[in-house]
Specification:
The complex is a heterodimer of chains A (about 260) and B (about 300). Chain A has about 260 residues and is mostly helical. Chain A is built from 9 helices and 3 strands; from the N terminus they run H-H-H-H-H-H-E-E-E-H-H-H. Chain A has a 3-stranded antiparallel β-sheet with strand order 2-1-3, sandwiched between helices. In chain A, strand 1 and strand 2 form a beta hairpin. In chain A, helix 2 runs antiparallel to helix 4, helix 3 packs across helix 4 and helix 6 packs antiparallel against helix 8. Chain B has about 300 residues and is mainly alpha-helical. In chain B, the strands form 2 sheets. Chain B has a 3-stranded antiparallel β-sheet, with helices on both faces. In chain B, strands 1-2 form a two-stranded antiparallel ribbon. The N terminus of chain B is likely disordered. Classes of the chains: A mainly alpha (about 260), B mainly alpha (about 300). The interface between A and B is medium-sized, with 19 and 20 residues.
């Protein structure tokens, strides 16, 4: 069940898609082909591609001074782009994985904890898309409405949640991600740390916020000062609007409370 | 001098009876400790020190910049050492060598908290010593012979090493190691159980793990955590690995480590042989005693 079909699904006839008649049945995540992509894809001899590189929903300098344009150029333009190209290359060899949505691909290649080679790059493509969308210029501050209520219900207070989130981020060793998720079974929010490329989709949980803690995500701007990066993310970058939207969508799949039935 | 460690360590930490003896014969460059005595205090605290690389910080330019060293050694490596000291002070680990702490806290894969800092402190020191200004080129002598024997050719070895380093997903290390152990190692699961004895092998490890925990003798390593190459190479890990192999590797260091590893393996074999002979002699002595008793009961019966 892929609840998280991204809201910019489009079937535009970008030159990145395979030239077959079955194209329209593949949910494509391609958006405008940016200058960076053209340059990097020019080196690829074949026109086989299954997934495209999505651009962040803001200009590359929009997150200054908290995340520099240079940082984004490298993180999105080299790392994220590299994952997409590597994924497409790997999928060329494996017909069986053709035609999945990104979510399905991740679950299938996770293979219940015994990941296939494609898992790392596939999950990293998804994770980075999710990460760009989890931030916005002028972000930070506090969540509102239902999300704030849920955070207060499950963590006591927003301050307590923030402390726990930052603590989780600082105690993660090696490369990985920190997530605020809605746990489907327990119907409550949780903070989860994952290693390398793993994300909560593999446990069927619903992520609301994701923070990249691979060193490439912050090294150019913050060097080894991970604490500063995490605090800046929480105070100035995180997009609670997007998180609220994700939570609203999640409620179509998870019953978070009893409906209020008016008594006659 | 540090107090004898074995007396204070609870037996649950020791993986197998022969562990203590084999640790004493370890020929690694054991990290020196500085004993700190506070005036009037009874307790003696031992601290690990952050040692500088064996060359100035700009010596590996332009292949590894001074800025990288300032952060990689000056911040990351320093933090591992400082945090380790904080974690072990006042515990049983306080008196051990760095290698012993690593082996103990690896705990068969169920890592105890000091493992990451201890292993990273060791790994980074090993890494600085694996490089030198004007490095690269080809090894010679016995090392080259073994490489040709175990990998086919030097080029094949380089290709395999580069592949291992490039395909270590996430943070970690790639190693060339000398493998002399025969049986399963008590401390951890052996990832190459069917290989012959005494081979050169290439292994890759995640995060802080190193081949000491499998009882291998590391000879060469490359750090593929992103902090090692991000400032100089951004996302281009393959280029960093190539430059490392072509311009930075210190084959002299690798050769001398190989010699030490072989010497250690030979010493261990002698030790095992000696023990086996002792046990046989004891068993034979026991037989003689039994024979005497049998004779005496026979004579009594008569």
């Amino acid at each position: 069940m892929s609840w998280c079909c991204c809201n910019s699904v489009c079937t535009s006839s970008s030159r990145q898609l395979l030239a077959t008649s079955d194209l329209s049945s593949i949910p494509s995540r391609v958006s405008n082909v940016g200058l960076k992509q053209k340059r990097s894809l020019c080196g690829v001899p074949k026109v086989f591609a299954y997934y495209g590189l999505k651009t962040p929903p803001y200009k590359l300098d929009a997150l200054e001074p908290y995340m520099s344009q240079k940082m984004l150029e490298v993180h999105w333009g080299e790392h994220h782009c590299g994952y997409v190209e590597a994924l497409n290359k790997q999928l060329e060899k494996n017909d069986m994985l053709y035609g999945c949505t990104m979510d399905e691909l991740i679950k299938v290649t996770y293979n219940n904890g015994n990941p296939l080679p494609e898992f790392g790059v596939a999950a990293q493509v998804w994770n980075h898309d999710f990460f760009w969308e989890s931030m916005k210029p002028g972000g930070g501050d506090m969540p509102k409405l239902g999300l704030l209520q849920l955070i207060e219900k499950d963590f006591g207070s927003f301050t307590n949640f923030k402390e726990k989130f930052i603590e989780a981020a600082l105690t993660l060793f090696g490369s990985g991600w920190i997530w605020l998720v809605l746990n489907r079974e327990e119907k409550r929010l949780a903070i989860i740390k994952t290693s390398n490329a793993v994300n909560p989709l593999v446990w069927n949980d619903i992520p609301l916020i994701g923070l990249d803690l691979w060193e490439h995500a912050y090294y150019l701007d913050y060097k080894n000062d991970k604490a500063n990066y995490v605090n800046v993310f929480m105070n100035h970058l995180v997009s609670w609007d997007v998180a609220l939207g994700r939570m609203a969508r999640a409620q179509a799949f998870v019953n978070l409370g009893e409906p209020k039935i008016p008594v006659a | 001098m540090a107090a004898t460690p074995s007396a204070t360590l609870p037996s649950t930490f020791l993986p197998c009876p022969g562990f203590r003896e084999s640790c004493r014969t370890l020929n690694w460059r054991t990290h020196k400790k500085q004993l700190v005595r506070k005036a009037g205090a009874v307790k003696v605290r031992a601290k690990f020190e952050l040692e500088p690389p064996p060359y100035p910080m700009n010596a590996l330019e332009p292949h590894m910049s001074r800025t990288t060293f300032e952060y990689h050694w000056g911040k990351h490596h320093r933090a591992y050492v400082d945090n380790l000291n904080k974690q072990i002070v006042g515990t049983e680990l306080d008196d051990l060598t760095l290698e012993d702490i690593i082996l103990v806290t690896y705990n068969r894969g169920d890592l105890l908290p000091p493992f990451n800092n201890a292993a990273q402190a060791w790994n980074h020191q090993f890494f600085w010593e694996s490089m030198k200004p004007g490095g690269g080129g080809k090894p010679s002598g016995e090392l080259l012979e073994l490489i040709n024997r175990d990998f086919g050719s030097f080029e094949a070895f380089v290709k395999e090493f580069k592949t291992a380093a490039a395909t270590q997903f996430g943070s970690g290390w790639a190693w060339l190691a000398y493998k002399a152990n025969r049986l399963d190692v008590g401390n951890a699961s052996n990832p190459h159980p069917s290989d012959e004895d005494k081979k050169l092998v290439i292994v890759k490890t995640a995060n802080a793990v190193n081949p000491l925990v499998w009882d291998y003798s590391p000879l060469l390593t490359i750090d593929v955590w992103e902090h090692a190459y991000h400032l100089d190479f951004r996302s281009r890990r393959a280029e960093y690995i190539s430059i490392f192999m072509e311009k930075l590797v210190s084959w002299e260091a690798v050769s001398s480590r190989l010699e030490a590893a072989k010497a250690q393996a030979a010493e261990r074999e002698k030790e095992e042989e000696r023990k086996r002979r002792e046990e046989e002699e004891e068993y034979q002595a026991g037989d003689e005693v039994r024979e005497m008793y049998v004779e005496s009961t026979d004579s009594e019966a008569e």
